[in-house]
Amino acid sequence: MRFRSEEWLKLAMLTWDQVGRIRPRLTMDTDSDLARQLRAETDFLFDLEPSERDLDAVGESFGQIVELGGPELRARFSVRSAVEAAPHTPDATGLRARYPGLVWVYAGGVGRKMTHSLLLSLVTAELAVVQDEDGVTHVGLHPFFARIYMTALADTMAAHSLLSPVTDDLDVYSAVGTLDRLYELLLEKGARRPAIGDIDHAYIHLAVEAVIRPGQIVDIPVRTLIDFRERYAGELAAFRKHVGSLSEELGTIAAVENPVAAHAHMYGIYRSTTQPQLEELRRALRAFGVESSTGMLGLKVDLASGTVVGGLAAAAGQPLVAAAGVTLTVAPYVAGRIKARRALREQSPVAYLLAVDRNLASRSLFACR
Fold this sequence. Notes:
The longest helix has 29 residues, at 259-287. Helices cover 48% and strands 17% of the residues. It has a 6-stranded mixed β-sheet. It has a 3-stranded antiparallel β-sheet with strand order 3-5-4. With 369 residues, the protein is an alpha+beta fold.
């Protein structure tokens, strides 16, 4: 909910129509001057809160992982190990002083980012600590565990809201895509290998020079960028529509399971359409006194579902085929243990009782007499 880089936020203004962030309405305003100006003068930024549907989907998946890999998760991501490994920060106050090294996730009432049942499971597994600060409940997590959790939450919220998750973090960008990959991401790090694999269980990564990147963008007044967006709203909308169509084209082409052919088609589209549009927008920026170049936009297509992920960064993984303007990679995602467990549970004759026990009972049905 806080932008790490003002440069990234300014670049996002020239790339996306709007950007939403996960920010509960009761959260104290700690925005930068740039974010406040965008909120006051444009509709570029908007805030989202997780729905119960979002929280339940993520909570169920993480709950299964805790059941499956509790001891191994605890060995890697216990709150004690994160606190003990944290460097001393003399200027820290509050929770960050008492529990250095932890990342704190809002888990209070309105707009909370975690279900109460998952919170209890994580505390029992020594993967979380719950604390109140200024009357607000927060859950402290190991930094890597927290990052994967928030990525999964953002990914789920985007899917339920017909949005595209976007990030400037390469590691997070490569992780986004499906809840079924959580076990692999948390417990099988390094297991991913670029391969075409099963087309029903693969991602296509596309990095294309499709971002306008003004020189010294940090020094460009935000008012100049706002004026440019307003003056060329139609052109920017057409360009964004074209960039979105690239991923649609890619999903269709990739169905033939031939990344070389897919790359050839994509490069042809880029050279005939994307590149000329970029040059037109660069000339328009020059009229505002801003020199610019082209930067990389990472797009990621889940071939099984058609989900599109975007990021202002190069595509993750090792390139299989590449040329000026377009880089293409293909990577599998596999989560057999989670999928197998889910299938077994759904096929079990007691699945209904288990679901009732988990979701409806205030105390275990099996404890009733």
